[in-house]
Specification:
Layout lengths: L2 H13 L3 H14 L6 H14 L3 H13 L5
Helix pairs in contact: 1-2, 2-3, 3-4
C-alpha cells in the first residue's frame, strides 16, 4: 500500500471510531513518505485520534509537529 492508501485507511478507521488503528495507519503513511507535504494533515489527524483516546501529551506533540510542517487548520 502507498502512503496515500494508508492515509485514506486512517480516515475510514477514524470515522468508525477506531482511533488506535487510525493512528497505526497514519504512522505508516508518514513512515512511507516522510517528505510528503500532506504529512502536516496526517500529524494533525494523529493528534485528533490521540486526543480521542485521552493521550493528551502525545496529542499535543502530534499537533506541534503538524504546525511545524505548516498545518494551519
Amino acid at each position: 500500500m502507498t502512503a496515500e492508501d494508508w492515509f485514506n485507511k486512517s480516515v475510514a478507521l477514524h470515522d468508525q471510531g477506531n482511533y488506535a488503528d487510525a493512528i497505526k495507519a497514519l504512522d505508516e503513511a508518514i513512515r512511507l513518505s516522510p517528505n510528503d507535504p500532506n504529512n502536516a494533515i496526517a500529524w494533525n489527524n494523529k493528534g485528533v485520534a490521540l486526543d480521542a483516546l485521552g493521550k493528551t501529551t502525545e496529542a499535543n506533540a502530534a499537533f506541534t509537529e503538524a504546525k511545524k510542517l505548516g498545518y494551519s487548520g
